[in-house]
């Protein structure tokens, strides 16, 4: 996928490369990555587009073709939905979101919804500096508006309050730092939340991101901008 984003890639092509039947390949791929091959490919294409927008002077049309979209309109719509802003605005802001908000809380959420909480942990040897984003999403892909979100200045406890009923994935992400070239990520779920049910304790042990992890598509603040609709919990020793 990473080496052939401008090409038309079918499930048959990918399964043939892996030397599996397409049905077995699709099942195995989803088991390993949490996404279908088509969903993962779409995410990788948008991730590459994000990179090209802030590192090149290519036009949006040229970038859309480079990452495998025949229609710039389709590309712009999918980019905006997944990243949270249009390709042009993403380039203008150098890939930074001004402010990130979770879905609005309803009266029922405030009165009857439980919390998801836990600790963010770093791998051995990782420097403690670097903001950590925690988000609740309906699938194992950090895109679009999170159900709930929070940001920590480093490892420690987090709380996502008033979580609505549903099946959610808790995803953690720390951008690359001078001591770690790869982002640090964590994924837990699905977490089944019931109205009026108990709180859920979900620890997030971060690890270096691999090529099999779904990319972070959502544009994040630079660490100084606030997150709205979330409760910040300062890290504890």
UniProtKB/TrEMBL annotation:
SUPFAM superfamilies: Homeodomain-like. Pfam families: HTH_18. InterPro entries: AraC_XylS_family_regulators, Homeodomain-like_sf, HTH_AraC, HTH_AraC-typ_CS, Tscrpt_reg_AraC-type_HTH. Residues 1-93 form the HTH araC/xylS-type domain. It comes from the Bacteria. One of its GO terms (molecular function) is sequence-specific DNA binding. Residues 92-112 are annotated as: Disordered. The keyword Chloroplast does not apply. Keywords: DNA-binding, Transcription, Transcription regulation. PANTHER family: HTH-TYPE TRANSCRIPTIONAL ACTIVATOR RHAS-RELATED. This is AraC-like DNA-binding protein. It comes from Kutzneria kofuensis.
């Amino acid at each position: 996928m990473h080496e052939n984003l401008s090409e038309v890639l079918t499930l048959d092509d990918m399964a043939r490369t892996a030397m599996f039947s397409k049905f077995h390949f699709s099942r195995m791929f989803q088991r390993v990555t949490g996404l279908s091959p088509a969903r993962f490919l779409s995410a990788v294409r948008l991730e590459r587009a994000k990179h090209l927008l802030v590192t090149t002077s290519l036009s949006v049309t040229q970038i859309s073709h480079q990452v495998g979209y025949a229609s710039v309109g389709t590309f712009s719509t999918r980019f905006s939905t997944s990243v949270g802003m249009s390709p042009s605005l993403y380039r203008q802001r150098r890939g930074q979101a001004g402010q990130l908000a979770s879905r609005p809380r309803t009266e029922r959420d405030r009165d009857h919804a439980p919390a998801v909480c836990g600790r963010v942990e770093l791998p051995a040897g990782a420097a403690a500096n670097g903001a950590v984003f925690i988000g609740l999403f309906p699938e194992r892909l950090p895109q679009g508006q999170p159900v709930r979100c929070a940001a920590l200045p480093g490892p420690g406890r987090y709380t996502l309050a008033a979580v609505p009923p549903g099946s959610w994935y808790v995803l953690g992400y720390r951008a690359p730092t001078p001591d770690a070239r790869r982002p640090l990520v964590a994924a837990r779920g699905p977490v089944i939340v019931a109205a009026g049910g108990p709180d859920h304790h979900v620890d997030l042990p971060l690890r270096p991101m691999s090529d099999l992890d779904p990319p972070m598509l959502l544009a994040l603040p630079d660490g100084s901008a606030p997150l709205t609709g979330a409760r910040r919990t300062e890290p504890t020793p």
